Structures are given as C-alpha cells and as structure tokens.
Please model this.
Amino acid sequence: MFVDGLKTHNLRLMDSAGVEVVFVRGNIRVTLTATIGSTDWQEQANGDVYQSLKSVDFIVDPAALKIGNNLAEPSRGDLIEYQGENYYLVQTNNGAFWSWSDGFRTFYRIHTNKG
Model:
C-alpha cells in the first residue's frame, strides 16, 4: 500500500515537474518523461586523495523504458538527450550506471554527465 502511494506521488511529480528526454541505445530512441536530480559521491584517485564528483540524474519510471516489448535497464553506452545536449551514463563509486530512486525500487535514477 505504501509503495503504491509512493509510485503515485512520483507519477504526479512527473506530471508537474517532468521534462521530456530521449533515451538512446544505439539507433533505438525512447521518449520518456523524467525529473532531474543529482548524485554526489567521492572516489579515491591516488592513495589517500579523494575527488568529489557529481552526476546529473534523470529519474524515470522503469515501466516506461521499453525497447520493443521488453523492459530495459540502463547500461554502458546508453545516453540521454535533453534540451539539445547529450548526457552520457556514468558509473558512480558503486560501479552502477543507475540506482533506485528510493528503498522501494519505484523509479530508476540514471546517472549521467553532460558530454
């Protein structure tokens, strides 16, 4: 019940604050509605030196990310087009190109950097 409410809340957020983006995998293009966020993390660069990094995140409904009739999971080589710019998927310090938007796994949070 709580998960249904969270998903409904996120969909209403998409309705009010969502933007149109295009998810691109090779020559396949999928138009999606996304909200924009960010993720901050640190990576160890050399020994004890850490660098702070930040991604531009596109938060999308996994049910909307279909290639053919199959649900797709964001992966290496994919990109998102937004406002005429390409945003390439990047790995955060846990090695993932995306994470769940919340503990109930309702939406993808796709990590990108502007290319």
Helices lie at 2-17.
